[in-house]
Amino acid sequence: MTRLGLDAGDGASLPSESSTASFWHQAAQDSGLLGHRTTAALPTRANVVVVGSGIAGAFVAREVLELVGEKAGVVMLEAREACWGATGRVSLDAFTSHAYHDYHDYQDYFPPLSYRAAYRWLQNAGRCQPDIWNNGATPHIARFELATYSMLSELVRREAIDCSWQEVGDAHVLLSDDEAVAAREKVARLPGELRALVKLEWRGDGERQGESSRIRGEAVGVVVQEHGARCWPYKLVAWVLRRMLQGGETRFNLQTGTPVTRLVRVSRREEARGGQGDDEARWMVHTPRGQVAARHVVLATNAYTSHLLPQMSRLIVPVRGQVCALRPPRRAVLLPHDYTWLSHGADDYLIQRAADQEGNNDDDAGANEAGGFIIVGGERFVVAGGQEGISADDVVEPRIGAALRTAVPQVLELQEAGEARASRLEAAWEWTGIMGYSRDARPWVGRVPGQLVRGGGEAEHQEAHDDDDDGLWICAGFTGHGMPVAPGCGVAVARMLVGKAGDGVSLPPEYVACAERLGVAAARAELPRGAWDC
């Protein structure tokens, strides 16, 4: 057999056994998924094992079930509770496309000055905003995100999913003439059908763009995209998981509290003689509760991928993000939009929930009739290293929390004219979550290249991984930007797995996990730090 896995201290750790309490996990109490194990005993075999139960893993499993039906045999293994990673934690921009897919291009246009760059016009909880105007050089990526957005919109509408989905628009506010010139150039590069979905609006003489948006200072103009939605991602994922569970345990079996500790490849010789009693098994998936023999294994593990694939420790790096739910000042106005701005060269982001929405009560909302919590995340570069390489979400960083409490009043007018302006807001909730940052800023989707699973040192290793159909797959490395693309990536990898690659899904070639990417990506000295930061 070929053994994969990490010794303690190498790459990412397993998810923390305990974690900070996420505002979004309030919905877990009524989800029916806490502590869920479809069967008391861990299944001993599966056709497909999906490791991870966030947005990517959920859509991988859902698509396999759609394509294969009664014989799907999917087992999903989750180290903690269902949807307890980034999707349920640092997903305020869930389903929101971040603006600058080319990090170096982004740096040229928006230098790392505090509190500059694009504000986003969306509202409420998670967001689904296909990025169009910044993808002039890669229009196929814009089309992929639009397709993912449409898929989700149709699913939510057709199934009447209770996940706070509301379709809104998005406006990127331009705060300087340089930004305006850059925006005009980007929009001009778009193909015609994409350009029609974007419009530029410029501030007229005497008009202050910031007055209606509560932005401090003047804006030069805005880039408006009408395709966008807001959403509560945990609720959406919980719905997908519950629906799959209705099909019975032979189709889909969810096992929470079951971390995968290592993968062992069944060698060709063992395959030929039936490998531990299962002539379809190519992988033995090890957990503290036992082993599962599987034909296919899909790593929907995002930040934690290198715990099982140590050769990916440089390619997908855990990065801890921090979020606060802030009480608005008394007699504050309801913020009309959601916002993103630059601080220390990376994004901060903000949403406000309506006072009467789930998750707020009179005390929590600060007795403010206008609006509920102001939820803000970012500021990770106020500490050295920007929380890169950290895979534990069981603590918060006090210096980041302090910066988040003071960031909002520096950027937005929270109160009516004449009110004494608050300089610091009180936090009702504060939590962290771990993002998986891809060194080349692109997700890793598809069959795991053989180079990433070779090197275990056992004699049978080389032989075991020359097979073009190795059965090990990946859907991870979303760089804090996964929600607008992760569902589509999950569908794509599921179709590859069942032999229908490319059938109805135009996965961007930049996302494909292939040998050609490895050296180029690993050679990048720094991780992306800007527009994907969530």
TrEMBL record:
Pfam families: DAO. GO terms for cellular component: cytoplasm. This is FAD dependent oxidoreductase domain-containing protein. Residues 48-495 form the FAD dependent oxidoreductase domain.
